[in-house]
Every structure is written in structure tokens, then in C-alpha cells.
Design a protein that fits this description.
Layout: E1 5-7, H1 16-31, E2 39-42, H2 44-52, H3 59-76, E3 79-80, E4 86-87, E5 89-95, E6 106-109, H4 113-123, H5 126-144, H6 150-163, H7 173-191, H8 199-213, H9 217-226, E7 234-240, E8 251-256, E9 268-273, H10 277-281, E10 288-289, H11 293-296, H12 298-315, E11 319-326, E12 329-337, H13 342-354, H14 360-365, E13 379-380, H15 382-386, E14 390-393, E15 395-398, E16 401-407, H16 410-420, E17 424-428, H17 436-441, E18 444-447, H18 455-463, E19 466-469, E20 475-477, E21 482-485, E22 488-491, E23 495-499, E24 504-506, E25 512-513, H19 519-531, E26 535-539, H20 543-551, E27 557-561, H21 569-580, H22 584-609, E28 614-617, H23 631-640, H24 645-655, H25 667-672, H26 674-693, E29 700-704, H27 710-731, E30 738-743, H28 746-750, H29 752-755, E31 761-764, H30 766-774, H31 785-790, H32 807-821, E32 826-829, H33 837-845, E33 850-853, H34 858-871
Parallel strand pairs: 3-4, 16-17, 17-18, 18-19, 26-27, 26-33, 27-28, 28-29, 29-30, 30-31, 31-32, 32-33
Antiparallel strand pairs: 1-2, 2-7, 5-6, 5-7, 8-9, 8-11, 9-10, 11-12, 13-25, 14-24, 15-19, 16-23, 20-21, 21-22, 23-24
Length: about 900
């Protein structure tokens, strides 16, 4: 019989896939002899069984749950639902990968009208008992029954107002007893049935809710963002309750063994006396910094400090811990490797190597490549900041700087960013897991409530998004779509700026500047470069982009899109003259105007790359992209080019294609107009000749796009070679060059052995290869892909992460067939997947020589390539 439930003391750290991260760590802490309230874990296999069995927890699993419950009752010496000595539990989700906010914790489960009386008598503290009961009813209604917690919060606020108090802790036992009555009435009104009085029913309902949460929208969004497979499932941890709300000698807290924002080696966190966990995390009351616990109770502080260091050394990583103090005794509720900012992750990696806890390879694996994105994002321009005055200050919850238009809901954030691509700052009283989609698209997050361990802070740090939390002077009026702070009013759409490194909020748009690679960041990059075998190039069309990429460590240009050079106002006229030319002579005259422009572009790029390879893709898009389409614009262009409106319009209409992305573009343009390939070859080679005379060695790589047949490649290659060889011979210099192709048509991958007879390198253009393999348009797929994610047909966007099953198989085929014909053919990738860590590891695995990505993703690709080599070593 399959075992679906494990007591904490039966588990082991190695069982993480089965017990989830939280369950495995509870088992491990128990084995270390730490003060952990005992309990049991319902496994991830039970979750998968729940979905397999039609979203039902079958009797065999239920029986194992109650068997484990009985053993835990015995451990505590208490009985579930008992009127004399009631046993209460907490219920928490716990996937093998940390998923903060997937489902809120349920505390005090097991309380009933009978049990609450027993708890009151047992503790001689009716206030505590009814405080626990009202919390449980609200949590159970919200998390398990999906009743909006606002239904209960307004009753609590009304009670405080009626009693003339500000804090929950100011309410007495009779007040709380009355609240419990009101909460039960509200529950029955909204649910249509009384609040359950059988604790075993409560428990099974709560475990069902955890399993159900694995498939809720916010969990699915988080999984997609973090590449967590759906089939992993989540475990459920049922743990005996200890109480932080029993008075001023009890409390609760969340702490990190080091500062998760900076990596500094100091205990970092918050706590509250006479409180339960949600009070700290949700920001309902303002918590105290953990350092003050030393003043309140030095012995407890020292005990917790020693445990945190013990756990850090044991796990060889910064720990994120939850604890409760009950009647002066410390209990550890959980530990996990702490989520941290990129800045902290880098510092921690370097420090743990210096402290002898990690090797360089282990330290590199502690830093997720995607995290580096936040280190490469802007900070405020010091000059602009000097003149700006903050309107308030909150907590510096996640570093970086951002400006944007104010929005008050996650839905509005997504809508505005999608609509006009301008940045937004999400302003909330406090965030909740439901806000995840809006948080993802926002440039920054500002909350009026919540501490450094609030939902907004933890999620923002994990995403690398700038966040200021707990700005108490900010008064949010979501219904009115405005907020006020110190006499200033900001409406939706107004610009504000926030600094997640200082906590300052500014009532204006402040210019930002880009980051640089230095200090610990530079050290980590140096270690990564020593380890990786995969080279990293950049996609760059301008000297500015090329310079930025070299600053970030790019080893050449893997894609220069020459058409991007034609769209400038000073050049568009010449390319249009070429397009509307009626004969070869007119076309060559127009191309002659473009030649010096292109040549100068390549000279600048060669110099920026300082001898590293520069891969130049010849003209790729269909010609209609360069011409106007409205009658007004056509009229204007006709006048400028001294053509009749009718002739120009007819020419433009002739360029129209039903499906231009599969039409007259790429290599097909050079087959029809070989003079284009000749001009571009002259520009590439003449630029190489010029920089060679200036003492720089350069080997241009000429890339012919969209090839699907070796004979069309040969047709264009012949033009390239004849033009290039003639120019080189006339120069008297020894200049090498390569002619290769972009593999972006499935047929090219299938026939790669034939194409490799002539092509000297392959570069996979995975944007188009993905479109053509899947058979859907990248521009239109966004309309229906969400339905595919919802139904689990696809788990991630194939344009964000390489589809390894289909597109990846074609890539592997292309590499293998190419190597059969031309051993050690140079292979790379220049699609946008080149900067995606998951895709970089795949490119390493199939034997590519390099990846090429946008300048700001170069460090990410460098670190991902090191990860790939450590996990899957390849000969250098």
C-alpha cells in the first residue's frame, strides 16, 4: 500500500520531492533536535492522486491522515475537538519549490463552539481562546471556502470603532466572543450552511483546499514564471499549534539569518508579541525589528540567533525562518533557503566561499541567472535626484529605482502596460497573492502597509522588482482611484518614482541610469567565465548597443540585423528609392547611397567589438515594411520622390502579401535582387579592410537568412564570395571571412547535412523556427495561448523558453547533421531565447558553441552557461 502521509520524525531531507521543501525541512529540523512542534506531511503524490481521482481525497488517504493525527495527538497529550484539552493544528502548503503566496496558512484549525470553551478553561484565558476562534473562522472562510475576507474585516473594524479602540489587542474577551457570533452568522449567510463543528471535517476540507490551490490562477502564473512543472504537485503540512497570542510573554516572527536585501551578515526580520503569524506577514500591525527582541528578552534572542546560525551552517545557505514564542518558550515552525535580492544573492555567494562553506561551483549555483536582471536595471540619475524631494518614506523592501504612472489594481496595471507599453507603479494598501499578474508587469510596487517580510516585499525581491512597503503616510482610496500623502494627491495615471534601496517616494518622474558590473558582481562573473564553455555574444545593430554589451562581457555580435540600420530618417529615403526603382540601374543608384552608410556602421561595430566576431545578417524583412500605407503618407512620399501618387500606390500595392512572414523576404530578396547582397557584401568587406589597415584584426561572419534549400544558399554565396574576394585581392590584405546561414525553417534543420557542405556556420533563429514549427504567429498567439496554459496543453510560452520536444529536436538534428558533413561547424543561437537561462542550458546540452542575446541579458547568459557546465560538464 502506498504511503501518502509521513510524521515529521519519519521524514528525511532527501525526501524533498515527496514531502515538499517545507515538509522535508521540518523533518530535518526535528532530526537536529530543534524545538519543532510535531505534526505530519501529506505528500505530493497524494496531491497528484487527488487530481487523478477527479479532485477527491480517497478513503485510503483519509485513513492515513487520521492515523497520523492520532499519533500527533498522543505526542502532544491532547485530543482533536476535545472539550477539556483540545488539540489544534495549522495547515500549510509546501511544494518542493518554494511558492510564496500560493495559499495562505490556516491557523487554529480544530476550534469549535465546544473546543473554544475547553481552550478558555485550560489556559484560563478566554480572550486568547476567542481571539483564536475568530481568526480561524475568517481564515477558514477565506482560504477553504473562498469567501472574501473583507466580509469579516468590516465586522472587526466596526467592533473596534464601537469600542473606541485602534488595535485588535485592545478588544476584550466579551468583544471577541461577540465577534465570533457575528462571524458565524456571516459565514452561514454567505455559505448557506453553519460553520462546521466537526474538526475532522475541517481538516479534510483544509487539506483539499491546499491541493485545490495548486491549480489556482496565481499558482499557475507563478509556476509559469519560475518554470515549475505542474506534475510536481504540492504537499500539505499539518502541525500542532503553538500560540503567539497568549499574552505579552508570547509572540510570533519571521526572520532571515542574513539581510535578504543586501546579503549583510546580520539577523534580519520582525516579530510581534501577543500575535499570530498573519499579523506579521499581512502587515495588520506594525512589527518590531528582530534586533529589539534582544532588549525585550535577551535569552530568547540568543537562543534564536544560535538556531539560525546552526541552520545556516547545516543548509549552507541563508535561511528564512518562522518562529513562535508561547509562554516564554521558543518554537521553530519552518525554515527554508531564503529568497533574496540579486544584490544579496551575489554577496552571499562570495561570502560563503570566503567563509569556507561553499566551493565556487556551489556558490554559482546559489545565484539564479534570471535574478541578475535586477542588477542590470536602472537606478536614479544622481543629477535628477539632487533636485527631487521625497513626499514620504517607507521601507526599502526591494532595491532598484523605478518611475511610472500610478495604478491601483493588478488588472489595470496589466491593461495599461499592454495598451501603450509605458511603465506603471502599482500602489496598494497591501498586496495579496491575487495581485501577482499585476506585480509582474509593474516597474515598481508601493504599499501603505506591511513590513519587510510582507507579501509585497517577498514577492518583489524574488522577481527583482523595485518595492517600497509600509509607507504609512500613504492613504489609498482605491474606489476613488487616488492616494494622498502629506497634502499631496495623486490620481491614477500621475507619475511617481520610488527607490527600493532607500524607501523614498517621489511625486514626480525621475530619470534613471543604467547599472555597471563591478565588485562582488564582477567576481561572480569572473568565476562563471572560468567555468563555462558556451560563449556569449550579443544581438546589436548600433555602436551604443555593442558598447553596452561589451561592458557586460559579450564576446562578439551574434546577430546584427542590417534592416534596423535602414529605418533611420536619413536612410529610409534611399531604401525606398531602391524599392520603387523600375530597373536595375535605378536600383543600383539607390543602393550606392546606402553603401557608405552601411560601411560606416560596420566600421563602428568592428571597433566596438575589439576583434571579436561580428555576424551580419543580410536584409531579412519583406520590403513592404519600409513603405507607407495610408494615402496621406503615400501622397507625401510621392511628392518627395517626384513620382505620381497612382504609380507609387500601385507599387506599394504590388508589395502586399497575404502572409508576409512566409513571403518575399530573407534569402528570397537576394535571389530576386542580387544587387542587394552585393552592396551589403561590399559594406561588410570594405569596413573590414578599413579597420584592418588601422591595426584591428577582424573576421566578418556573413549570415544569409531564411535558407531552406542549399541551392538558394549557393546562389547568394556565389555573389558574396565573388564580391568579397575581389575587394580583398585589390586591398592586398589577408582578410578572412565566413559565410553561413540562419537555421529558422524546419526544412533547413532537416537538410542541415546538405546545407553544411556550403555553409561555414549555423545560427539558429529560434523566433521564426518556433513560429514555423508550431504553425502559429508569434504576434497573434497571445490571443489563444492563455487558453492552452489554463488547460495545461502548454506549461510555458514557447517564445520565451525553447520548446525542447519539438523545436529543440530540430535544433539537435541541425547540429548533429551539420557536424556529420562539416566536423566542428560553428553553431550558435541568435533568437531571443539566447538570453533565457532555461534555453541557455539546453543550448549547452546540444553542443552549441555560443548563444547571442540582447545586451542587458549578456550577464544572465554568462551565468546560465556556467550553471549548465556545472550541472552537465562538457569538454572545453
Amino acid at each position: 500500500m502506498t504511503k501518502y502521509v509521513y510524521l515529521f520524525k519519519e521524514g528525511q531531507a532527501s525526501m524533498k520531492n515527496l514531502l515538499g521543501g517545507k515538509g522535508a525541512n521540518l523533518a530535518e529540523m526535528s532530526s537536529l533536535g530543534l524545538p519543532v512542534p510535531q505534526g505530519f506531511t501529506v505528500t505530493t503524490e497524494a496531491c497528484n492522486k487527488y487530481y487523478h481521482d477527479g479532485k477527491v481525497i480517497t478513503q485510503d488517504v483519509v485513513d492515513q491522515i487520521f492515523e497520523a493525527l492520532a499519533a500527533t495527538e498522543k505526542e502532544f497529550g491532547k485530543k482533536f475537538g476535545d472539550s477539556q484539552n483540545p488539540f489544534l493544528v495549522s495547515v500549510r502548503s509546501g511544494a518542493r519549490a518554494s511558492m510564496p503566496g500560493m495559499m495562505d496558512t490556516i491557523l487554529n484549525l480544530g476550534l469549535t463552539d465546544q473546543a473554544v470553551e475547553g481552550l478558555a478553561k485550560l489556559t484560563d484565558n478566554p480572550r486568547f481562546a476567542y481571539d483564536s476562534y475568530r481568526r480561524f473562522i475568517q481564515m477558514f472562510a477565506d482560504v477553504v471556502m473562498e469567501i472574501d475576507k473583507a466580509n469579516f474585516e468590516h465586522l472587526l473594524e466596526a467592533m473596534k470603532e464601537a469600542k473606541g479602540v485602534h488595535l485588535d489587542t485592545d478588544l476584550d474577551a466579551n468583544d471577541l466572543k461577540e465577534l465570533v457570533r457575528q462571524f458565524k452568522v456571516k459565514y452561514e449567510e454567505l455559505k448557506g450552511e453553519p460553520f462546521p463543528q466537526d474538526p475532522k471535517v475541517q481538516l479534510i476540507d483544509a487539506i483539499t483546499a491546499v491541493f485545490r490551490s495548486w491549480d489556482n490562477p496565481r499558482a499557475n502564473t507563478y509556476r509559469m514564471l519560475n518554470h515549475i512543472p505542474y506534475e510536481w504537485g504540492t504537499a500539505v503540512n499539518v502541525q500542532g499549534m503553538v500560540f503567539g497570542n497568549m499574552g505579552q510573554d508570547s509572540g510570533t516572527g519571521v526572520a532571515f539569518s542574513r539581510n535578504p536585501a543586501t546579503g549583510e551578515d546580520v539577523l534580519y526580520g520582525e516579530y510581534l508579541f501577543n500575535a499570530q503569524g498573519e499579523d506579521v506577514v499581512a502587515g495588520i500591525r506594525t512589527p518590531k525589528p528582530i534586533s529589539e527582541l534582544k532588549l525585550d528578552n535577551e535569552a530568547l534572542y540568543n537562543e534564536f540567533h544560535d538556531i539560525s546560525k546552526k541552520l545556516e551552517k547545516h543548509y549552507r545557505d541563508m535561511q528564512d525562518m518562522e518562529f513562535t514564542i508561547e509562554k516564554g518558550k521558543l518554537y521553530m515552525l519552518q525554515t527554508r533557503n531564503g529568497k533574496r535580492t540579486a544584490q544579496a544573492a551575489v554577496k552571499l555567494a562570495i561570502d560563503l566561499v570566503n567563509e569556507g562553506l561553499l566551493t565556487k561551483e556551489e556558490a554559482i549555483l546559489k545565484v539564479e541567472p534570471a535574478q541578475l536582471d535586477s542588477l542590470l536595471h536602472p537606478t536614479f540619475d544622481p543629477k535628477a535626484l539632487k533636485a527631487a524631494k521625497p513626499v514620504t518614506q517607507g521601507l526599502a523592501a526591494s532595491p532598484g529605482a523605478a518611475y511610472g504612472r500610478v495604478v491601483f489594481t493588478a488588472e489595470r496595471a496589466s491593461e495599461l502596460v499592454k495598451q501603450d507599453k509605458l511603465p506603471v507603479v502599482l500602489v496598494r494598501q497591501e498586496t495579496s497573492p491575487e495581485d501577482i499578474e499585476g506585480m509582474v508587469v509593474s516597474a515598481g510596487i508601493l504599499t501603505a502597509r506591511g513590513g519587510m517580510t510582507s507579501h509585497a516585499a517577498v514577492v518583489a525581491r524574488g522577481m527583482g522588482t523595485c518595492c517600497v512597503a509600509g509607507a504609512g503616510e500613504v492613504k489609498v482610496n482605491e474606489a476613488g482611484k487616488f492616494f494622498t500623502v502629506n497634502g499631496h494627491k495623486f490620481n491614477e495615471g500621475d507619475y511617481i518614482s520610488i527607490d527600493g534601496s532607500t524607501g523614498y517616494v517621489y511625486g514626480e518622474k525621475i530619470a534613471t541610469v543604467e547599472a555597471t558590473v563591478s565588485g562582488d558582481f564582477a567576481t561572480l562573473m569572473q568565476w562563471a567565465d572560468e567555468i563555462r564553455v558556451l560563449k556569449v555574444r550579443t544581438n546589436a545593430d548600433t555602436p551604443r548597443d555593442a558598447h553596452q554589451a561589451r561592458e557586460f562581457g559579450a564576446e562578439g555580435i551574434g546577430l546584427c540585423r542590417t534592416e534596423h540600420m535602414f529605418f533611420e530618417a536619413s536612410r529610409i529615403k534611399a531604401i525606398r528609392e531602391m524599392i520603387v526603382a523600375k530597373n536595375l540601374v535605378e536600383r543600383q543608384a539607390a543602393l550606392a547611397k546606402l553603401l557608405p552608410m552601411q560601411r560606416e556602421d560596420f566600421v563602428k561595430l568592428y571597433k566596438e567589438m575589439e576583434g571579436y566576431a561580428v555576424t551580419v545578417r543580410y536584409l531579412d524583412p519583406p520590403l513592404h515594411e519600409f513603405v507607407p500605407h495610408t494615402d496621406e503618407e503615400i501622397q507625401e512620399l510621392a511628392k518627395e520622390m517626384k513620382l505620381s501618387f497612382e504609380d507609387l500606390k500601385r507599387t506599394i500595392e504590388d508589395l502586399h502579401e497575404t502572409n508576409p512572414m512566409l513571403g518575399h523576404r530573407g534569402v528570397r530578396l537576394s535571389v530576386t535582387y542580387p544587387e542587394i547582397a552585393e552592396m551589403q557584401t561590399r559594406a561588410v568587406i570594405e569596413a573590414a579592410i578599413q579597420v584592418t589597415k588601422e591595426g584591428l584584426t577582424v573576421v566578418p561572419e556573413i549570415m544569409i537568412p531564411l535558407v531552406g534549400e542549399v541551392r538558394e544558399f549557393n546562389f547568394v554565396k556565389k555573389i558574396v564570395v565573388q564580391t568579397a574576394d575581389k575587394l580583398i585581392k585589390e586591398s592586398g590584405l589577408d582578410i578572412k571571412y565566413l559565410v553561413g546561414t540562419m537555421i529558422e525553417i524546419p526544412r533547413a534543420a532537416i537538410l542541415a547535412d546538405e546545407i553544411a557542405k556550403e555553409a561555414e556556420f549555423f545560427s539558429f533563429g529560434t523566433n521564426d523556427l518556433t513560429q514555423m514549427t508550431f504553425g502559429f504567429s508569434r504576434d497573434d498567439a497571445g490571443k489563444f495561448l492563455p487558453d492552452y496554459y489554463k488547460t495545461k496543453i502548454y506549461e510555458s510560452d514557447p517564445f520565451a523558453h525553447i520548446d525542447q520536444k519539438g523545436v529543440g529536436k530540430l535544433m539537435k538534428m541541425g547540429v548533429d547533421l551539420g557536424n556529420q558533413t562539416r566536423p566542428n561547424i560553428k553553431t550558435g543561437i541568435c533568437g531571443e531565447h539566447g538570453g533565457d537561462p532555461q534555453s541557455v542550458e539546453f543550448c549547452h546540452a546540444i553542443g552549441l558553441d555560443y548563444v547571442s542575446c540582447s545586451p542587458f541579458r549578456v550577464p544572465i547568459a554568462r551565468l546560465a552557461a556556467a550553471h549548465a557546465q556545472i550541472k552537465n560538464p562538457r569538454k572545453k
